[in-house]
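A quick word before the example. In earlier lectures we treated sequence and structure as two separate objects. From today on, think of them as two lines of the same record. Here is O-antigen ligase family protein written that way.
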Amino acid sequence: MGLGFKKFVEYMTTREISPCKIINVILYSIVLVMPFIVTRNYYSPYLGAKLLFMYIAGTILLFAAVLTKNEMMKMYKEKIIVLCYFASLVFTTIFSIDIDTAIIGKQDRGEGLIILGIYFLSFLMSAKYLKITKKMIKAVLIVSCIMGIYCILQFYGFDIFLSILSKKIISFGSIALIGNKNFASTYILIFLSLSVPLYIFKGEKIYYVCSLILFGALLCTTTRGCWIAFAIMCVVGLSFVIKRKELWIRTGIVIFSLGIVFTMLNQTSNGKLSSRFRSIGQEISQVDEKGVGSLGTNRVAIWIITMKSIEKHPFMGAGLDSLQYRINRDEFEEHRIFIKKYNEIIDKAHNEFIELWACGGIVSLICYIVLIVVILKELIRAMKKHNDDKYKIMFLFFITYLMQSFVNISMVACASIYWIMLGAIVQQYRLAKEEEPDNVNAMSL
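And the structure line, produced from the sequence above:
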């Protein structure tokens, strides 16, 4: 037995393990496994273990980056922008209001400099090494559907994990294993923005089934911002298929089927979904009575107060995850009135761009916007130059995430996936631009 163990150790220590394989295992584990991790013995059951997982994943990716330093040292414009972005955040962190918060993030948020650094590292690794295959795409969508089914069960009051986790956890509807309806809806929307276009352009039944499950889950989260983002995606998507008659039947099937899903969920919940839709009009009609700040579940009020703070210090950020400290410093009286009126504090801007400006500073915001513009420009060029629908699918995913980010909060379970997928987008159009269709990383959907 001792000899057998010795041989096993010798085999494992002498066997060559490709850094590329390690990177792919880590990146896919972030997408497939990390969002499902919860624990009862942690300060934040839905977040704490996810953060720990990301710290470990980031450490391994950093080690892999060292092993592949010759490749990782090669520069291209998207990498340069991301490195400038990270450098600007480091500078902001040094001069932040609370340096500990800026580095590790707030206890119930966790998006400090370390996690942003892991996002960026994941992006760079994905852009270079991620292997994308039909099999893995289907696996990712199927796993996301498991989360979606759980969302739907929660919508009807079934939540098997609440009895297992700490008693301090309170169910606020369809929060999945993400911990918040807004965050759960962003997670679902990420994969729904892939499954619907995949079915329409590729026609495989698995994508159709995933689309129905994920759309039902999105409805069950009852988050209007993500509903609107999905609607915008559908409108843009229709512009891609309107001149292609061969796609009309599948498009019609999707529209009809999603309508059936909405009707079934609405009828079995005593009109809960239609009531939520009507609340949009009700909020608008009550502006004169409650004020413009009440729009979007008080989001407009948060934006106004945050922008007032930015006006006082437009260039320097307060440090990542430090918005509450900045608001208290710059608009203490406004914040006090807000808390009294709405019974909540402002610790996030509910708009990723305003949040980045307030906490990361103007240079960080500019870097992120430049990165978005560059990627959108390259995707549009690829759509025009190459007869491949995968670029349309990537474009729809990208704009859908951006649309929801105008009214939502970045968080670990979703943002980490977004940055990995963003890297995959960069990889694909760069491979096409370099005319390397035989590259093993090239995706064929």
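Notice the following. The first helix runs from residue 2 to 14. We will return to this example when we discuss secondary structure assignment.
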